[in-house]
Amino acid sequence: MENLQTSASISMPEAPSTAQPVKDKERIESLDLLRGFAMLGILLIVSPIWLKYYRFGPLEWLWRSLSYRKLQPMRR
Fold first, then answer.
1. What is the pLDDT of residues 46-73, one digit of tens each?
2. What is the pTM of this model?
3. Taking a C-beta distance cutoff of 8 angstroms, is the pair 55, 75 a contact?
4. What is the CA radius of gyration of the chain?
């Protein structure tokens, strides 16, 4: 049984311990482009819905509150 186990074992390359950037030759530009358009589509759909209920986005609210040194109303 031991013989069978050693002959059937497959050595897998070790995964790097930390995440590293993808090398340029491994990068798929069309996938990056697709991700960019997907994010743009999501933002174009979600932004009008958000602005229907709130005056501005969360970071703009934070920026205005810090600028005026007073919590700004967020809801419409």
1. 999 999 999 999 999 999 999 999 999 9
2. 0.56
3. yes
4. 25
Per residue, what are the HEC states of the chain? CHHHHHHHCCCCCCCCCCCCCCCHHHCCHHHHHHHHHHHHHHHHHHHHHHHHHECCCHHHHHHHHHHHCCCCCCEC
- d(CA 54, CA 49) in angstroms, rounded, equals 9
CA distance linking residue 66 with residue 63, whole number of Å:
5
The continuous run of DSSP H or E covering 58 comes out as helix 58-68
Contact indicator for 53, 76 with CB cutoff of 8 Å? yes
- Rounded CA-CA distance 21/34 in Å is 19
Residue 48 token pair: 């009008």
Contact present, 64 and 56 (Cβ < 8 Å): yes
